[in-house]
Amino acid sequence: MTFEGLPSNKIPTLPTFLIVGAAKSGTTSLYHYLSQHPDIYMPPNKEPHWFSRLPYVPDRDSHPVNSEEEYLDLFKGRDRESAIGEASPSYLWDEKAPYRIKEAIPQARIIAILRHPVERAYSHYMMDVRMDKQDFLNTAGQWI
Q1: Which position among 24, 46, 96, 133 bears the catalytic label?
Q2: Using an 8 Å Cβ cutoff, are 78 and 85 in contact?
Q3: What value does the CA radius of gyration of the chain take, rounded to a whole number of Å?
Q4: Which residue, 45, 59, 75, 140, is the most exposed by fewest CB within 10 angstroms?
Q5: What is the DSSP string of 2-42?
Q6: What's the whole-number mean pLDDT along residues 39-57?
Q7: CATH code reported for the domain at 12-113
Q8: Burial 9-18 (b: 16+ CB within 10 A, else e)
């Protein structure tokens, strides 16, 4: 995704910032808070995962985009906002994502959200319990 040599009116609108982070660290909350600001645009698809090329997984809430055109369409016509962003936690752990981001949008700011590993693991476990992916009583009984 390079746009060198294109006239400025032909360069597509791209994010000015990206939110990356560990699972269960608050990226969704930050995404929703920023979406409410009138001068910030966040696309409806919270986790496009374009720079990590993450495949679609049916049980997940994210819907990765599959093409450059689909990614650019997320931001098409968005030039009135002072900031344009997207949130894909996978950019934190995907080893190729930083290079792809630097090549496509080197001026973009990156907001990284981290969380204490034990608190993050417990939060993830409790989410799995709520979604019936873990049996709390059975698991707790194994620990006692």
Answers
A1: 24
A2: no
A3: 18
A4: 59
A5: --TTS-GGGSPP--SEEEEE-TTSSHHHHHHHHHTSTTEE-
A6: 88
A7: 3.40.50.300
A8: eeeeebbbbb
**pLDDT value of residue 95:** 94
Give the residue carrying structure tokens 């290079």.
Answer: 99
In the numeric block, which tokens belong to residue 48?
A: 């496009």
**Residue 109 pairs with which residues in a beta bridge?**
17
User: What is the C-alpha to C-alpha distance for residues 109 and 130, in angstroms, rounded to an integer?
Assistant: 34
Are 22 and 120 spatial neighbours (Cβ–Cβ below 8 Å)? yes
* Plot region of 52 (φ>0 → left; ψ -120 to 50 → alpha; else → beta): alpha
The domain ranges of the chain are: 12-113, 116-144
Q: Does residue 30 contact residue 114 with C-beta atoms inside 8 Å?
A: no
Active-site annotation holds for 24:
yes
Taking the C-alpha atoms of residue 44 and residue 32, their distance in angstroms, rounded to an integer, is 10
Between 21-30, 38-47, 123-132, 134-143, the lowest mean confidence (pLDDT) is in 134-143
Task: Give the C-alpha distances (Å, rounded to integers) separating 18 from 24, 84, 125, 127.
Answer: 17, 9, 27, 25
